[in-house]
Amino acid sequence: MNIVNNSIDAGKPFDWGRASVDYARYRDIYPSVFYEKIVQRNLCISGQKVLDLGTGTGVLPRNMYSYGAEWIGTDISENQIRQAKRLSEANNLDIQYQTVAAEDIDFPDSTFDVITACQCFWYFDHEKIMPNLYRMLKRNGRLLLLYMAWLPFEDKIAGASEELILKYNPCWTGSGETKHPISVPDAGYQFFEIEYHEEYNIDVFFTRESWHGRMKACRGVGASLSPEEIGKWETEHKKLLNESAPVEFPIKHYAAMLELKKTERR
Questions:
Q1: What tens-digit pLDDT sequence spans the chain (266 residues)?
Q2: Could you tell me the sign of the dihedral formed by the alpha carbons of 48, 54, 58, 64, in that order?
Q3: Inter-residue contact 96 to 73 (CB < 8 Å)
């Protein structure tokens, strides 16, 4: 399903379903500290029911399943949900998945202790979803926003890979990332208040193959370029890595989390 948002990639259509196979193989890359920091906030743990928005291939619920929460994952892409189900079933994980846009999710009032959104919050219609998320959360419920990105100005390999994406997709707005807190539109503060936020640097380790796959599975390549463009990009990117990257290497990233608390409204 093509998504068009004029504030993302100048309105160029993208479809995560086109990248689902690579996404499932190469984007399950968050280090253990990423999940540990969530648990340290007493979120997504035993006794809690959690809704994961934009779940993709179910990376967050699958990796946090052992902490005991009951998970439901939703995503607009049927292909992403198909991969999420396949990976969960292969590991005997009892996770529910639904193919539905975030704006159309409809669970009863006060269903969830936590609602999560990892790498996806900016894609949603915030004016529409915020009152609905508020409604579906229990009293004192939490909305947890999560993010991780490579740092192209601090890491030469990441920077070179990013430049090559821009060669084929100059409208891609996923470039030029720097470390910063997760922001929330004004619509969010009508229903939620900041409880906690944290931003921290991490190294994520790759091989040439896994970094190539990670980059191909991003919005600027696999989800939006034509098959011919992807083929040309792949040839150039593999050559770039063979010439400039060791067999294994770390890529400098930063991660961020923002915990929002449901406010009491009169």
A1: 889 999 999 999 999 999 999 999 999 999 999 999 999 999 999 999 999 999 999 999 999 999 999 999 999 999 999 999 999 999 999 999 999 999 999 999 999 999 999 999 999 999 999 999 999 999 999 999 999 999 999 999 999 999 999 999 999 999 999 999 999 999 899 999 999 999 999 999 999 999 999 999 999 999 999 999 999 999 999 999 999 999 999 999 999 999 999 998 64
A2: negative
A3: yes
- Rounded to the nearest angstrom, the gap between the alpha carbon of residue 125 and the centroid of all alpha carbons in its chain is 16
Residue 113, φ and ψ in degrees, nearest 5: -80, -35
Alpha helices by DSSP H, listed for the chain, are: 20-26, 32-40, 59-64, 78-90, 126-136, 156-168, 208-216, 227-244
Find all residues with CB under 8 Å of 71, minimum gap 6, and list them.
50, 52, 61, 64, 65, 95, 96
Give the number of C-alpha atoms closer than 13 A to the C-alpha of residue 82, restricted to the C-beta side. 9
* HEC profile of 233-261: HHHHHHHHHHHHCCCEEEEEEEEEEEEEE
Please state the pTM of the whole predicted model.
0.96
